[in-house]
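Section 3.1 - Work completed
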Amino acid sequence: MKELEGLEEIMRSHRNRLAAVGTNFHRNLYYHIDWDDRLIGIKGPRGCGKTTLLLQRIKENFGDTGQALYISLDNLWFASNSLIDLVDYHYTHGGTHLFIDEVHHHPYWQTLLKNIYDDYPQMNVVYTGSSMLRMDYKQGDLSRRQLVYHLPGLSFREYLEFEGLYRCEPLELEDILKNHVRIANDVCAKIKVLPAFEKYLKQGYYPFYKEVKKGYDMRLQQVINQVIENDYPAIDEVSMSTIRKTKKMLMLLAEKVPQTPVMSELYAELDTDRNQGLKMMHALERGGLLGLLSSEAKSFKGLARPDKIFLNNPNLMYALVSKPEIGTVRETFFFNQLSQTQTVTFPKKGDFLVNKTYLFEVGGKNKSFDQIKDFENSFLAMDGIEVGHHNRIPLWVFGMMY
């Protein structure tokens, strides 16, 4: 009977979660996941809506049939109970789909998923994990068994839909470059886009902004602490000293971004060496807290020093810095939005090189072409304007790409 009582706790959590989730708005990724695949991984930073994605799928496709079960591995129930026992119970009682949240809380999560995949061939599994997860790391070989998706925070396009202001399909970069005047006119005919954009930059990247109202910045700081204190040590073997240094690194960088870092000075201030410093910096990037811009596309063979460091998104800037510099906010937004779907690198001139083809300068409405006027395929991404002309494109339009 003890086991049944414990299972009822899991079932109650499942029912309560389903009852609370809304289905009026779906993230763009929801429609691109091949839900029929047997093993699906969804990575993403904390607070970006991975749990909601799972619950919406269950609510809309399974209801209370008992075929699908939602569990979160940070539930204390798993401190004294086996996940495999629960999987077996679910399977033998007609379960066909298992939705596992916070998978990185299990020390052998890859081996666990491999065993479920191999031992329960009729079971479909969808799991979420921290964006810090390295899918080819440590135990198990899941690469040939799974499809992995990445869920970032809300794009500006998704924010407008979430707010009930404007709805459209995601745009391709080339479409924006060629047709931005028509695109901007269509949006501005229906809404006042600049006030909405200003709100989004401050409180709009993380979907939970609707829940917390005035406590948004405090909630963001809690997310930061969870990433560094819980997710980082769950995935990498790090000491308490490293956790403290990682927090300090984030705060030091928040006050100075964007910058071409003098790494030796940063390491000295943190009382650390190059190797550990780079590991901490790249952990903050993987955790969705930093954006690292380099002159070459990302390589997973080693940890390299970035050419420029940003916070991941403007919301983090407003939460961590008392008075963010507006130029930095603009560049952070552009880098964040385009890096989700494009290859963005650090150019010799200008601010960003996209797909090794398009050169961008980011600035206010009085920004000039002086720095990049001699380059083919050069553009200005300009804040403070509703509609652009020629190669002058409103900055907000670049938030319509996913």
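Second construct:
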Amino acid sequence: MKVLKYIGIGLIVLVFVTVILTFAAPTDFNVERSISINAPKSIIKEQVMYFEKTKAFSPWHVMDPDMKDWMEGEDGTIGAKYYWDGNDEVGEGYQELISVQENRIEIDVTFLRPFESVAHTYFTFDENDNSVDVVWGFHSKFPRPFNIMGLFFNMEDAIGQDYEKGLISLKELAEGIAAKQGSGIELVELSERHYLGFRKRMPMDEMEAFFGEHYANLFAYINNVDFVESNGRATALYYDWDEENNEVEVTAALPITGNLDQVSLEGYEQLTLSGKAYKAVHRGSYETIEETHGMIHSFYGKHNLPLPDLVVEEYVNNPNDVSSSEELVTNIFYVEK
């Protein structure tokens, strides 16, 4: 009976100590790590807000390259969810993109294994002259009695080391993309070229239909006359890009040669382009062309140059003629005033 008595006292003491420890240990848990990246903010944000792209710098994919993962929703949009189910090191759970702002991206993480918990993670972006300071942060609440683990295991250090590894990989990734897309920014002399095009100001979400309609009209017209022909690629001339009002003013155009005096297509106008321009080449999907424009803007800022009034995109090849969007090539010209 004395043995049972001592066991009972021991259990009472254990429960008492556990209760004390649960109130002594913190329930809030925060981690932040930072790094400076020499790449445009647009490129860095692109790698962070798309879950498929985060796998390229995620330290946890290195821990379990065979983990199962899948998506729900449209990647890169608010509400998109990324699920993973891996080994004991990475566990199981899902991430949800909840906010994308100019200088901040927020993601909620729900852990299902090894134990259930919810964390709030975020990335912030602070632009300097030639770089971007990136902070990766983590905040979570550990319910009692699980918060006792914080007294015996340095989770801040463990997660912090993972974040440090991830940020180093993000830096290498973003700077590599910037170097690839930004290589060859050069000042060129544009030889005189004549265009036939249709100019319009419109909501940005109408651009795809606008280009489809007017490029089709232009090709149909040129193919049905014998006094003029196209001597270049489909081109877009941008005069205004107003993100605040979600509007764009642009001309869908084709370069033409021949007897220009006979050209007549209702609603379309001829224009001539020549002079100096800074040129960059974008390789890959049109969906990521903003990254190259961001790189050019950084170049202008670095050299204290005023942004021009006219930006030209020349689409070197046709999406229907390539096997992958990664093969697309776009020449971008920032035409000097």
